[in-house]
Amino acid sequence: MGADVRADGPARAAARGPKPTLALPAGFRLHEYRVDRVLGQGGFGITYLATDVHLNARVAIKEYLPAQIAFRTSERTVSPNASEHLRRYRSGLEAFLVEARTLASFRHPAIVRVARFFEANRTAYMVLEYERGESLKAWWARQGAGSASAHDAPPAAPAGGPAAEPALDPADAARETALLRRLAPLLDGLQVVHDAGFLHRDIKPDNIQVRRDGSWVLLDFGSARQALPAPGSGAEDVALTPGYAPIEQYLDDAQGAWTDVYALGATLYWMIAGRKPPTADERRHADPMRPAAVLGRGRWSPAVLAAVDWALRPRAADRPQSVADWRQALYAGHAGLLDLGEALRRAGPGAGETPVPPLRWRAGPRALWADLRRRAAPAHWSLGAKATAALLLAALLPMALTGLLHLRGSLDAVADGERRNLQLIARSTAGRLAQLVGDSQKLSRAIGTDPAFVEFLLQRAQRPRPAARPAEAGPGAEDAVEGPSAGLPTAAPAAEATTLAALRGKLGAIVATNPDLQLLMLMDRSGTAVVSSDPEVMGRNFAFREYFQAARAGREHVTGVVVGAVAGEAGVFFATPVRTPDAGVLGAVVLRLRASAIAGVLDEVRAGTPRQPWLIDADGVVLHHPDPQWRFRSLVPLAPAVLERIRADQRFRRDRIESLGLPALAEAVAGARVEAGGGGHLAFRSPRDGEPEVAGHAPVPGLPWTVVVSEPEAYFEAPVDRLATQLAAALLLVGVLAGLGAWLLARGLTRPVLALTRAAEALKRGDYAGATLTVRRHDELGRLARTFNVMIDVLRQREREGRAPAAEGGR
């Protein structure tokens, strides 16, 4: 996406520099960075050479600015050039941030490094290391490498058999070796990308930078995405590079490492043949591509040519399925360039145990139990067991303590970050709801000040009319006063009928153009709907409704989610008073917003996650939840007065409001509405299964509602759980290795000690020959054994000297 982070490239790149109206001027400041000049411009952005004024270091800054759909305003901000491009612009901006996050997660010398990224000027910027060098395309052209041409055609096969493979010229062999040596780190970097679960999806000579030291670095991750998406998943389209993109990118089929391998093979094909392969779409049926084995014969080794052709197989299943598979084929004739670590295999010696005295199996249970207890006491452990236990404890205890501390810290950090994230999501969703409601309020006010509606109500107010039948309270009160008897004249003049039809048409047109609206109605001072976009509502009296009573008193009113008997659906009512020129109230304009519009905004927070959006009103009643059984239930038992008011208003069409039993959530929601800029996060247990959950909450600005976003703790703790599993596996592995090391150490210690013990026992028996040790060691135990042998010799000599006088006295 956008321009690459290249320096010292071809002069023509600077010659076709960006339009002055698009690029930021030299000297412009972006946080701590000062723009110096433009490095290049692509279809999706501009790359600048900049200076970190704090560190006095050169950096490259990539700015998202799709020239076809956006422009630079006079305030230096970026904006779509047409309203129909807004969604496309935002989608591209999200893709730009995905590229930044992707690159920031990699640390490899062959992957361009992102120092940071940020949003400013209504667009986004990516700060990258300033790579000095040129593109592989320009670098390869300077190498003067020959391409396949007529004079490079392979020799004809002799009669009776295939042509022998010609030997490579020493210069060609050296060029191939140097090329593969430079390519190896780039393959390692791409393997890092794949191991992280990402694909590049746009590898080509223009996206490989050759540094001044000759090393290669992979650029432009604008098309990167997570590997192996489901076919037809609807992932956002990216610009394909013909010749380098395989067929699965055209068809949106399953993509994987084989997708990037195809692009690498196409890049090497371009270097070998001097031209890129035909497009994958052209190769679907009758493949017009001449194999690399034909075009490069005599100039490149057969192993390299065969690996390139393998990578360029049209069917994904026929290609190498990983970078490692392709590397083995590509370097088959250059084994000296491979990393020997890939072939290493760990092996350990056979196990053994230090001999211990046997248990007395036949001495009876009590004697056997006594032997077992004696062996369990550390004082009676063998030297090998003690050494093993000491080494295991020394190896595992620090690692376990450190791991547990880090694991606990990671869990706390993840939990705190997720709680704050939920709070931010709740705050963002609350802002969107406020915007949705505010737009509806503006529409209601506009209709309430429309001269046609004001004049209509004014004429009706000045003309005597028959008395309306009083409305009834309670269920079905919306239907209590209907038809002409509800305040409409039984025989309206023709002019009034024409005006009424025009006003109904006007309201109907407004509702038809706004899918979020369910109905609009104009009420007179008695609460009778005299004009409505829904014919079934005409003539009904809603004087008992709280929203009309507020409007009749001259106040605007927004309800919670109300379930009406006429519409049969849940919705939110906005009532605006219609005033006379002298500020008297003639009636009210009532707008009904579909609850599905509000639910649509709330349900967007789920996005394939177990997050649950809640909408709670000022009384603590759940207005929206993904589980319908939780809707219109209170967080805590309601006060009798509140319950009676809800029952009388019949907003939920039910006589009982059951409680969910969530006092902590109720207290937090009430506090968020009281505090200025309220909102926060908390932990609670789900009423459904009692599992712990966390939630972020935020009040809806200007409305008596609160948005809550909750999710199970197990969801965000899953990565930490995997880390704990890895820690346990690491402890097990270290325990095995430490046990092996302890056994080797114990074996080295106990064998000389056992030999000394046997020698001492032989000495007690007077067997000096059996007490003499064979010493091959040169450590402390070896010196001890030699000293023991000297002692044996001294004792033997003294015994001989003592026997000599005794023998003479006997004679």
TrEMBL record:
Annotated transmembrane regions: 727-746
Q: Does the keyword Lipid metabolism apply?
A: no
Q: Which GO terms describe its molecular function?
A: ATP binding; protein serine/threonine kinase activity
GO biological process, alphabetically ordered = signal transduction
Please indicate which superkingdom the organism of origin belongs to: Bacteria
**Where is the protein situated, by its record's location annotation?**
Cell membrane
Keyword Phosphoprotein assigned: no
Q: Gene3D superfamilies, per this entry? A: 6.10.340.10, PAS domain, Phosphorylase Kinase, domain 1, Transferase(Phosphotransferase) domain 1
The ranges of region (Disordered) come to 147-168, 464-488
The UniProt annotation places ATP binding at 62
Question: Which keywords accompany this UniProt record?
Answer: ATP-binding, Cell membrane, Kinase, Membrane, Nucleotide-binding, Transferase, Transmembrane, Transmembrane helix
Gene Ontology cellular-component terms for this entry are: plasma membrane
Q: Where would I find the HAMP domain in this sequence?
A: 747-800
Query: Boundaries of each Protein kinase domain copy?
Result: 33-337
InterPro entries with a match to the protein in the record: dCache_1, HAMP_dom, Kinase-like_dom_sf, Prot_kinase_dom, Protein_kinase_ATP_BS, Sensor-like_sf
The record gives the membrane topology as: Multi-pass membrane protein
Q: In its UniProt entry, what is this protein called?
A: Serine/threonine protein kinase
Which species is the source of this protein?
A: Piscinibacter sakaiensis
